[in-house]
Amino acid sequence: MRNPAIRNWVIGAGTPVLLLIIWWFLSADSTDPFFPPLETILVRFQELWLFEHFQSDVLLSLGNLFLGFAMAAVAGVALGFATALVPPVRWMIDPLIHFLRGIPPVALVPIFISLIGFGTQMRVTSIALAALFPTMIATVDGIRSVSNDLLDVAKVYRFSRKERVVNVLLPAAMPQIFSGLQVSLQVAFIVMIASEMLGSSQGIGAMTLLAQQSFMTADMWAGILLLGVIGFLVNVLFSLLKRKVLSWYIGSRRMARAA
Amino acid sequence: MSVRQAPSLPIPNRKSTMAQQPETRISATTPRLDVAHLAKTYGSGEKSHTVIEDLTFTVDAGEVVCIVGPSGVGKTTLLKCLAGLHPASSGRAAIDGRTISGPPPEMALVFQDYNRSLMPWLTVRKNLILPLRHLKLPAAELKERCDSALAAVGLSHAHNQYPWQLSGGMQQRVAIARALAYRPEILIMDEPFASVDAQTRFDLEDLCLKIRKDFNMTILVVTHDIDEAVYLADRVVVLGSRPARVLKVVDVDLPAPRDQITTRSLPEFARQRTEVLSLIKRPA
Amino acid sequence: MSVRQAPSLPIPNRKSTMAQQPETRISATTPRLDVAHLAKTYGSGEKSHTVIEDLTFTVDAGEVVCIVGPSGVGKTTLLKCLAGLHPASSGRAAIDGRTISGPPPEMALVFQDYNRSLMPWLTVRKNLILPLRHLKLPAAELKERCDSALAAVGLSHAHNQYPWQLSGGMQQRVAIARALAYRPEILIMDEPFASVDAQTRFDLEDLCLKIRKDFNMTILVVTHDIDEAVYLADRVVVLGSRPARVLKVVDVDLPAPRDQITTRSLPEFARQRTEVLSLIKRPA
Amino acid sequence: GGSGPAAAPAADGTTTLKVGTIGIGSDAGIRLAADKGYFKEQGLNVEISVIANPPAGIAAAQSGQIDLTYTPSIPLLNALSQNVPLKIIAAADGYKDGASEGTDLLRVDDTGLLVQQGSTINRPKDLEGKSVSVPARKAQLEVTVSKLVKDDGGDPAKVNWMVLDPSSALQSLNSGRVDAASLVAPFTSKAAAEGNRLLASPGVEFFEQGAIGLWVAGANTVKSKEKALQGFRAAIYKANAYANAHVDEAQQLSAEITKTDLDVVKSGAVNYWPEDVRIEDIERANKNLAELGFLSEPVKLPADVIFGK
Amino acid sequence: MKASIRPYAFSALGIAGALVIWQVLAVAKAAGNALPSATEVFATLATILGTGTFWSALGATLAIALLALAMAALAGVVLGLLIGSFESVRYATLAVLEFLKPVPPIVILPLAVLVLGPTAEMALFLVVFGCLLPIVMQTVDGVQGTDPVARDTARSYGMGQGEILARVVLPSAMPYIGTAMRVAAPAALVVTVVAGLLGGGPGLGQSIYQAQAAGDYASLYALVIVLGVLGLLFQGATRLAERRVLHWHESYREVVR
Ligand SMILES: Nc1ncnc2c1ncn2[C@@H]1O[C@H](COP(=O)(O)OP(=O)(O)OP(=O)(O)O)[C@@H](O)[C@H]1O
Ligand SMILES: Nc1ncnc2c1ncn2[C@@H]1O[C@H](COP(=O)(O)OP(=O)(O)OP(=O)(O)O)[C@@H](O)[C@H]1O
Ligand SMILES: [Mg+2]
Ligand SMILES: [Mg+2]
User: Fold this and answer.
1) Which residues form the ABC transporter domain (chains B, C) (predicted)?
2) Whose CA is nearest to atom 25 of ligand 1?
């Protein structure tokens, strides 16, 4: 324990374990219908998600999430570039974009249900559309904040337009694009759950809400647990990707801080 | 870390850029760089702000000219006009008689904010290669240019590092190496040695004189260091504020192979620097 | 913008700090600052990295000592040890014989990263006041200290501006003014004039000599500029790398009221600077 | 939560009861009780708020956020099966005794299973493999339609259930996105008016008779506000009787509550407001749920599950 | 002059174009009767604005969002300073915070509804849950990101721990806190709406749910438009507040030089 690194590691790993143990023992004999024993929750978790509904619900939800997010990412970056580089386009759609962005994404779900129905199509569309704006706006901001010095370098060395976009603007805006994508991913996850809760009988969100509405609290807890784990894992995966793509940025930030 | 390992001939050939340009183009009477009654005003209307008003001087081919002047006088602005980044508001800047209207291909510029002019997502080598891409050089020449430019600034070992992994002085040298790898005929540098230590600075100053000699490059350097200006230059342009104007162009008559220790201890050196110094010290 | 408007006596009295300390404390034999066999290692175990190993020199009361040495040799590290910010790994640094174990109250430090050492959310005046708050001075004295310190660096007009509204050189001068307002007995500065233009630099150098004379302040300056070191110092400590050690302590024998133009053109000046220069140029 | 400060009668002797409803036509009963001053007669001040769905209401009642909530018997049984302590205070809506023997079930049952006019679905068994909309999973309409399918010899597990709010369900039925829609008033009559065909009336066929919609309170409220709940029951039953006797007036209110045209309301089922809750009616639903597999076994109803019995 | 008008002309064109496309699609019944026309929606909006229920729903939404935001901000900054200042606290909370950070409040909505019911308290709880962690994490980052040179400066002038925390660490964490608030404020609105829409809590979310369930599409669109405007106001207000507090920060400096 004398070594601070080891001590910190022990504290870091120990606290969550301790919390879980406390939860386990405090809830062990619980008869409160809303707070079932952790053991029951874990048993139901395993029964519900690991086999029975894995394909029909878990994979379905995740598939929608990734499809919607991917569409939003591609469209968001493309629209962001178009908006930032072609001023008339920017002037034309800026107010609309800002207005649409002001709408809580979940509030759009009822509208999509009424327009497209309730199937997978609706869910993916809701996810894609709601997740579009953060990426798009971050892309525009990223491009606009590319330092003039870099653009001057590009001019002095007479880069072509394509070189300027590919070799200067895109990498320089990448950190902001990625923070936009991260927000988009969060939004996509929220809308995934909301679209299932509002308009579907399949998916993790639907199952969890259903469990709540039929007072199967252990099932509901299991659903919450699964959603929490998915939210966490998706974020971790994204962070890994980000760390890979933006290693230069993270490194330079760390360097600037340490200096 | 030190520049002293630089090979004897850092930039052995520049045929690819030279070949495209006939040697005859420079007549004896046209100066290489000609700044005539140049004026530059930022903004327009109410908010306009005249930084340069009626600036005139010339730089001959193969000359090293230093520009000194107080901070904020407009030195960087002047260089940006010369590099074709800002249009002049009136008057003109010309290369070989051609008015500069966009970045001239035979010129390279080392920016004052070296750390903001390097692409942080590229390694040192890739930073050097980036401006060369559209020259469509063979891979071997690309490599050779990078290697010799990095060797010239003493950074051969750092070619795979990212700029932000280097110290300020090393970043500065990368920016200089990028300009060298481009093999310009005219090299313009904005306070290029501001953040390097004394020893490296001496080495870079000597490198500067060496490339001038080896390639007959025309070099224009902005500096705050009067000793450096006198040591480097054939002529020193002293600017006064504001708006910027030429206080005097001081001709430096120091013997040709200059040396950090002997040249700087010449009485003539002391006289020249005192002249520039008193121009600067005199209330503008 | 210029320093020349500084009043003749920028810091007229320093009774409040002086009063707490008896004048007798400095004996003729104890140096003001005593660095003996100082070593500093960053990190521990595998990753440890010895920057300074066995450094010894002294600074007498009222002396100006300059430290020169290549970049990264450990000059800033040394100053941080003296300021009590880092503990020494072995050896010791002492003030008047007392080993330094925390920031000594009679010392002020001007950081190399001046722009990061000023609080951007405070105006210039509030930046100056910040370190004085816990001295519980009367409002009038607070004001007087700020005003005279700002006047000394020629920034009286800027007291209500934010640091980032000022140029780099002006920020540097704010950092110096903050140290002056603190009225230290020992002033330590890390490359304090690196980003000011030549003219302001001269003025600040002269300011430095003036406060030494007026208040018998002990001053330690790290600089990259050898001319500056020779011009300012009573003694120049030349550091070699690595780990950092003292190559030589050069005694500067230049006549007392120094002047930018006459002193710098003395043959003795040229000799001294050549001596330091050749120490630096010599492969370490 | 708990039984808050409203437990003690206010200075003027009235007790405040917070009641949650889901805003359907049969709310006319409680609205009449309020409008006609029946609550005031009992020394009650009833605050009605709209909740999203019965389970939410149950949760709110259980935690003491509200005193009473409307719920059909099925969510109640679900909650009771998970040991949520609840008591039935009074009947809110239901079917007349013998209602299921009637001929025009559309006139008695406010729920309906509808298909397009030309649909090939002609009997509940045909629903196998088809998509059927329900307002919520495992709730009243899915349960009741499941029973229809099962009784007709089909397998409810083969039905493709879709969760849709009623208006979307009606729209989806019209556009053919679902094969059948299970709806509640006033959407049943709207759907019929738009040319769809009533396949079955699942509610009345499942419950047959007696109270379906119930006013339910949490066990804590029952303990702390026993007097007030007695008053509430009396007032509700008085209002229920009035509503049954003055159907036109009640339908007028229903139209207001559901923001529907009076004609649409009148063309649909006539609500019935029972004046008693019988344990056997609840037990019947309980047994059916277990048989259909919605409950693993019938809930052991506490002896005092119906307040005051 | 001409150049500065052009952007507005294009913006107007964009808005007008969108409205026209909407109207044409609606009139052509491109999406059945689920897409009300723009004129119909704005007429409905005008009627809705005249009703008391709308204003009380709006009031409830605003009250919940703002109250929860204030609570989250206060608690978040205090917790963040605590966690950021003590290494052992930071390590102890790291894993839990990192796990909870990407979990949006909608995940625990079923639990909140179950325990608290469809109430304002439930909405409040969800909003605080949703806004607290980002504020805590950002504050911790801010404390960590305090420039060591600024800290050393304070130390070298003999300032004490408490003084450094209040006068150096907190101000330099302010930009981070500002960023967190800029994210949290619209999020507070979103979560309030979600709590109403999915959890039955009071406010505009519930109104939207009711409009949807009743098939009242014109009201649905009108309410969504109201939310859009509200979202813009929230964003604008936080930006304004941030600009006032952080006028000294790089991103808000008015360039003087
Ligand atoms: N893009 C710009 N728009 C408006 N004003 C500018 C711009 N760039 C520079 N200026 C102004 O022009 C003046 C000269 O700036 P410039 O950078 O050319 O000075 P400098 O001589 O290079 O100074 P330094 O020695 O500090 O680098 C300054 O007052 C500056 O504020
Ligand atoms: N906090 C730290 N932890 C580990 N290593 C450090 C730390 N600070 C400085 N160093 C290392 O110590 C060495 C000396 O650094 P220092 O800043 O003292 O040099 P310097 O002489 O002031 O250089 P310069 O002239 O560039 O300011 C460098 O190699 C640097 O990387
Ligand atoms: Mg400049
Ligand atoms: Mg240093």
Assistant:
1) 33-266
2) B71
To the nearest whole percent, how much of chain A has pLDDT over 90? Answer: 19
Token digits for D145?
């339609």
CATH of the domain at E186: 1.10.3720.10
Contacts of E110 in chain A (CB under 8 A): 208-209, 211-212, 220, 223-224
> Percentage of chain C with pLDDT > 90?
17
Q: Which of C165, C154, C206, C185 is nearest to C15 (CA)?
A: C185
Q: CA-nearest residue of chain A to D85?
A: A33
Q: Judge whether A39 lies within some domain.
A: no
How close is the Cα of B77 to the center of ligand 3, in Å? 7
From A237's Cα to the closest Cα of chain B, the distance in A is 22
Nearest residue to C142 via CA among C150, C133, C155, C151: C133
Contact between C102 and E159 under an 8 Å Cβ cutoff? The reply is no
What confidence tier does C29 reach under pLDDT thresholds 50, 70, 90? low
Tokens encoding A193: 């759950």
- The share of chain E scoring above pLDDT 90, in percent, equals 27
Asked if B261 and C270 come within 8 Å (Cβ–Cβ), the reply is: no
Confidence label for B172 from pLDDT (cuts 50, 70 and 90) = confident
Residue E254: closest C-alpha in chain C: C165
Name the token pair of B152. Answer: 């010239």
Radius of gyration of chain E (CA): 23
Of B183, B204, B223, the one marking the end of a domain is B183
Under an 8 A CB cutoff, do E206 and D50 touch? yes
Q: Residue C162 belongs to what domain range?
A: 116-183
Nearest CA to ligand 2 atom 9: C77
Interatomic CA distance for residues A209 and A204, integer angstroms: 9
- Peptide linkage before D124 cis (omega within 30 of 0): no
Ligand nearest to the CA of C49: 2
Q: What is the pLDDT of residue B14?
A: 42
Range(s) of the domain holding residue E4: 1-34
ipTM: 0.75
Report if residue C53 sits inside a domain: yes
Average pLDDT over residues E239-256: 73
Of D56, D75, D163, the CB nearest to A206: D163
Domain endpoint, select from C157, C183, C209: C183
Neighbours, chain D (3 or more CB pairs < 8 A): A, E
Count up the domains in chain A and report the number.
1
Identify whether the C-beta of residue D214 lies closer than 8 Å to the C-beta of residue D277.
Answer: yes
